[in-house]
Design brief:
Layout: H1 6-23, H2 26-33, H3 41-45, H4 61-82, H5 87-113, H6 123-135, H7 142-163, H8 179-182, H9 197-213
Helix pairs in contact: 1-4, 4-6, 4-9, 5-6, 6-9, 7-9
Amino acid sequence: MKNRYLSLDAFRGVTMFLLAGEAALMYESLAQAFPEGNWLHGLVAQFHHHPWAGLRFWDLIQPCFMFIVGVAMPFSLRSRMARGDSWQQCLRHILWRSLLLFLFGTGLHCIYSDKLVFELWNVLTQLSFTVPVTFLLLRTNWKVQLGTSFLLLAITEVCYRLYDSTAPFVMDKNFGSADMLLMGKLNNGGGWVTFNCVPTAAHTIWGLSVGNCC
C-alpha cells in the first residue's frame, strides 16, 4: 500500500461495489421486495435513475466515477514517468487506450442490438473522449483545470438554452436531440445523448484539478 491514497482507493472501491450491485440486479431485486407503498421503497428508489427532472443518489454514480478517473490521472502519470516513460510515450498510450474504449463502447451496442449499429451511448465511448481531453490538461495548473471544468459546464448550459430558450431541457426536444443528425435516432426517448461527453469531461477535469493539488 506504499504511496497510495487510501481515501481514493476507498472511494473507487465503494463506487465499483455499487456498480457491481447494479450488474448483479441487486437493486431490481430490492425494488421487487419493497414495492411502492412499503416504507423502504423511497430508500430503494435512490438506487435507480430519476426518470427525468430530478436527482437521486444513483444519478451521482457516473459523475463520481469520472471524477475518480481525473483524480487518479496525475498519480498514474508520475508513476509511468518515474519508470522512464516520456510524455510522448504516455500520450500514445492514452490515445491507444481511448481508441480501444471507443471500439469496445460501440461494439457493446452491436452486441446489445445483435447487428451492426453506430451508437455512442455508454460510459466507454464517453471515456474515449474525456480521457485524452483531460490528459492534455495534465501539465497545466489546477486553476486552469478547474476553470476549464466550469467552462465546459457553461458551454453545456448555453447550448441547451440557445437551442430552445422556452423549454431547454424538455426530454427528446432539447439540444441533445442533435443525435438525430449524428445517428438518425435517439436513445431511450432522448434520456442519454452523445453531448453528455462534454459535461462528463468537466467532471473528469475537476477530478484532475483535485489530483494535481495532492
